[in-house]
Amino acid sequence: MEKIIYETIEKEMEELKSRMKKCYYSKSGLKEAEKYMKGLLSRAERKNGWQMSEILGESTPYKMQQFIYRGRWSADELREVMQEYVKEKFQDESAVLVMDETGFLKQGKMSVGVQRQYSGTAGKVENCQIGVFLNYAVNDKFCCIDRELYLPRQWTDDRERCRKAGVPDNCEFRTKPEMALEMIKHAYGNGIAFEWAAGDSVYGADKNIQKYLEEKHKKYMFAVSGKEYFWIGFRQYSVKAVREQLDEEKWAEISTGDGTKGEKRFQWQSIEVNCADSEYKKYLIFRRSLSDETDIRAYIAYGNVETRLEEFVKTAGIRWTIEMNFAEMKGETGLDQYEVRSYDGWYKHITLSCLAHAFLTVLREQFQGIPNMTAESEANMDSFKKRKKSESLSAKQKSDVL
């Protein structure tokens, strides 16, 4: 059995290498990419240059580091390879595109895009970088297919600081929703099949994302804050005002799916809002906790006239796969354990980490759960975030060049 598993893994890696070779000018470049991928997939405690090179039998990490620092290859070209790989291996017409951001805690001011800003990883304002990611979810399979580094205005308004970090001169300020919309458009243009899109209230507040998805007749389920307004008939109402008028008799108990502790069940209620397309409908959907009736969350949802409430609820549950994805990539493929300051270096490491996780996702499907990190990452989400917060700060005191 071990031999079969080993041979399957090697065969899959060789196939992935054959896809990646178009990104590199020489055999040595492809070889370094393979080594870096294997380092990210290794059992090294931290996926930095020293520990990855040691576990791969290298005497120093310098060659591996130079591959990321100065290697003549494009992270965007590798992103294209990753999307084609995911597209061929497990794309599905019913897939959900999930957008969200994650933070990378840093010290100092030299790392590209770093500043004091809110980090969901830490749960508060910290000195960090923020990456915006697009996740591809099909049932119990999920992986990242795109990534963008968020550059605050303090950075984009300071061109000299940007040049020192290798930020292209034509790189202007973009909001997180603008980045997410660009990634959605890119995935659609590459023929990535999906039926749904989902995200938290950062993306639910953006009307351009909704407009684009509606034009493409893609369903969506986005969280929204109580401050958002929607038309119902000939009047505009805030989400908060609609929530206060909900009918107590119309709550329906529906499961968002299975978790490690059983089904995740909530009460749900939908209110139809105005929609320009007669073949589609738009709703404000409210979720209420079974244990705390004051805990009510709101979503803006869009689907064709046949779309049932249960389908919207299921999509709301799938949205959380991106949190599990971040946990797996940070825990298994070193997403946040890079040793680079530059713009180009960030994209190279992050893209390789995402590709390594996509590779693991394909293997998980082939071995029907081997390796299987999903349940563990979900069960330990809170402890994972606390551990990564303390690890990120302590480890960077020793080896972070950021």
Shape: globular
Order of helices and strands: HHHHHEEEEHHHEHHEEEHEEEEHHHHH
Strand content: 15-25%
Distance between termini?
A: 43 Å
- Counting H and I runs of at least 4 residues, what is the number of helices? 16
**SS-derived structural category:** alpha+beta
Question: Roughly how many Å is the radius of gyration?
Answer: 22 Å
Helix content: 40-55%
Number of domains: 2
How many strands, what sense, and barrel or not for the largest sheet?
10 strands, mixed
Notes on the structure:
The chain is of the alpha+beta class and 402 residues long. It has two domains: 2-196 and 322-399, no CATH class; 220-315, no CATH class. It has helices spanning 2-20, 27-41, 49-55, 62-69, 75-90, 153-156, 159-164, 176-189, 201-204, 207-215, 239-244, 309-318, 321-332, 343-366, 374-379, 381-399; strands spanning 96-105, 115-119, 124-138, 141-150, 196-199, 219-224, 229-232, 235-238, 252-259, 262-273, 280-288, 296-304. Helix 2 packs across helix 3, helix 2 (27-41) packs across helix 14 (343-366) and helix 5 (75-90) packs parallel to helix 14. The radius of gyration is 22 Å and the shape is globular.
